[in-house]
Amino acid sequence: MVWLSSILILLLTGYSLVWLLGMSQRHFVADIAAAWFAGSGYLALASFFWTLGLHQRPALTVSLAALGLPPLLFILFRRRYAEGIRASLSACRSACYCPTAFRAAYVVLAAVAAAILVLIILHGKNTPTNTDDGLKLRAYTPMLVYQGLLNPKAVYLILANGSYASFVPVLGWQLQGSINHFHVNYLQLTVLFFFLLTTFMSGVLRKQPQMGIVAAFLLLSLPLFAYHETSTYLDSTYALMFAAAFLYVVRYCAEPDEVLLKHFLLFTFLTALVKQDGEILALTSLAFGTAMVALGYRRNRKLPWKVLAAAGAVLLLYALVKLTNGGNNLIAGVYHALVRSLGGTPAVEAPPMPGGSWEADVYFFGKASAYSMTDLSNMFFYGLFDSGNFGIVFYVFIASAAYHWRTIWRARLLLPMLLFLALLGEVFVNAVFLHQESTMVQAGLHRYVMAPAVTASVFIGLIWAAADDIVVTEPVASPAPKRRLGKRQRPSA
Question: Residues with Cβ < 8 Å from 318, sequence gap 6 or more?
Answer without folding.
Answer: 45, 48, 272
